[in-house]
Amino acid sequence: MAGRVSTPGSSVVSRAFAVLGAFDERHRALTLSDLARRAGLPLTTTHRLAAELVAAGALDRRESGQYVVGRRIWSTGLLAPVQTGLRELASPFLHDLFAATLATVHLAVREGTQVLYLERLRGNESVPIVSRAGGRLPLHSTGVGKVLLAHAPPEVRAEVLASLHRVTPFTVVRPPVLAAQLERIRRDGYATTADEMTLGASSVAVPVLRGGTEVVAALGIVVARLGRDRRRLVAGLRVAAQGIGRTLDG
Predict the structure, then answer these.
(1) Is 5 left (phi over 0), alpha (psi -120 to 50) or beta?
(2) Domains plus CATH for the chain?
(3) Where in this chain does the record put each IclR-ED domain (predicted)?
(4) pLDDT tens digit string along 104-157?
(5) Cys bridge to 215: 148, 151, 164, 229, which one at CB 3.0-4.6 A?
């Protein structure tokens, strides 16, 4: 469960982080009772911490009584090196790719067993998109996620393969099938999905390399259907990813 810290004697900081950690992609607004349950803290403690976090701008409280992450957390998060450095260096290449394809473009990194989206340039609005900058999604059901999973340490791959869950009827949830896909991604240098995260959306993604070998991010495009455009999109992604990699090396 997100943010669970129920050990007696835990510090105020750890309890505050438990409250903040209760939020995720599927739980963006929480009532006080839900916040306490997901944080693993007593209701009275959660109420006090939530009030202090609201006063500090880390949380906002809506008229409905639900709590959401405050702007101060987002603005502070943007100062993290993975956000500022990679995001800023990649920005020109992302915009060039977006201009060339008019499709939704993603830049993402792996955070544990999830994808963390650093940037999203919104493309054709007829394609359903659930991602957002700063949001997290499963590794196994997204194009950028599969690229990152294919190049993740063996223990991370094993953890993901042992806990696959279905997001749509087309999500790959059989470990041998996904393992074979990951091997193919490492061999071919790109990943694809079709309706695995959202019905009506397909994706293609490639790794971003530093020093020619270290995978530091994934660059992806989301369209309605890949079809005959797959080769063209892969080529465009590779050019952009190589440009980002050269900038990182410089």
Answers:
(1) beta
(2) 12-75 (1.10.10.10), 78-249 (3.30.450.40)
(3) 72-250
(4) 999 999 988 999 898 899 877 667 788 888 788 999 999 999 999 999 999 999
(5) 151
Helices 32-39, 43-56: crossing angle, 10 deg rounding? 110
Distance of alpha carbon 117 from alpha carbon 138, whole angstroms: 11
pLDDT digits (tens, 9 = 90+) for 154-198: 999 999 999 999 999 999 999 999 999 999 999 999 999 999 999
* Residue whose pair of structure tokens reads 């952009």 in the numeric block: 240
Give the dihedral sign, CA 194/196/202/205. Answer: negative
Among 155, 133, 157, CA closest to 145: 157
Structure tokens at 20: 């903040």
Q: What is the pTM of this model?
A: 0.70
Q: Report the distance separating Cα 154 and Cα 100, nearest Å.
A: 36
Of 39, 44, 1, 47, nearest in space to 20 by CA: 39
Residue 239 CB partners (closer than 8 Å, separation 6+): none
Is residue 8 over pLDDT 60? no
